[in-house]
């Protein structure tokens, strides 16, 4: 069975509408439309990884632990916290210039921790992480830790 009459044109017009919306969004946010969007993503990842290294150094200096940026972060595996080596804590690091959804960040940290715990249980391994926390810096302010009340207790 072939395409309904005019379907090709409607698909083409939808694609043009999407392109138009992307260009409008780019212009609304004062971004050069010729900017390579992969570079924007790369810049964001670089900013996140540098913040993870800063946190690891703070933990290493202040607590005397062997804290490091989670190596799996480089590969996007999600199998390790953003900062490792901090006595059982699954650390999710966030650095933003604008707003941060703490509930979404905590949900991500707990989801990743639960997946890790499940994998450890399936492998019959002793888990080294058991509590999730989000450490965030918003608009260059001080670092703040957020966790659920059950994690705190």
What does this structure look like?
The protein is an alpha+beta fold and 153 residues long. 48% of the residues lie in helices and 15% in strands. It contains four helices and five strands; from the N terminus they run ααβββαββα. It has helices spanning 7-28, 37-63, 102-122, 149-152; strands at residues 68-69, 83-84, 89-96, 131-138, 144-146. Strands 3-4-5 form a three-stranded mixed β-sheet. Strand 4 and strand 5 form a beta hairpin. The chain is globular, with a radius of gyration of 21 Å.
Descriptive key words:
single chain; two-stranded antiparallel sheet; about 150 residues; globular; 3-stranded mixed beta sheet; about 15% strand; about 50% helix; 4 helices; alpha+beta
What is the structure about, briefly put?
It contains four helices and five strands; from the N terminus they run ααβββαββα. With 153 residues, it is an alpha+beta fold.
Topology:
Blueprint: H1 7-28, H2 37-63, E1 68-69, E2 83-84, E3 89-96, H3 102-122, E4 131-138, E5 144-146, H4 149-152
Parallel strand pairs: 3-4
Antiparallel strand pairs: 1-2, 4-5
């Amino acid at each position: 069975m072939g395409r309904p009459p005019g379907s090709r044109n409607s698909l083409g017009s939808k694609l043009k509408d999407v392109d138009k919306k992307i260009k409008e969004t780019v212009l609304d946010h004062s971004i050069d439309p010729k900017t390579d969007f992969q570079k924007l993503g790369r810049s964001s990842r670089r900013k996140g990884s540098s913040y993870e290294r800063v946190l690891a150094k703070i933990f290493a200096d202040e607590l005397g632990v062997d804290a490091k940026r989670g190596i799996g972060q480089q590969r996007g595996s999600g199998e390790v916290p953003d900062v490792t080596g901090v006595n059982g804590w699954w650390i999710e690091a966030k650095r933003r210039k604008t707003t941060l959804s703490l509930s979404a960040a905590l949900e991500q940290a707990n989801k990743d921790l639960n997946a890790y715990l499940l994998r450890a249980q399936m492998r019959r391994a002793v888990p080294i992480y058991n509590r999730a926390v989000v450490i965030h810096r918003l608009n260059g302010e001080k670092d703040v830790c957020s966790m659920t009340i059950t994690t705190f207790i």
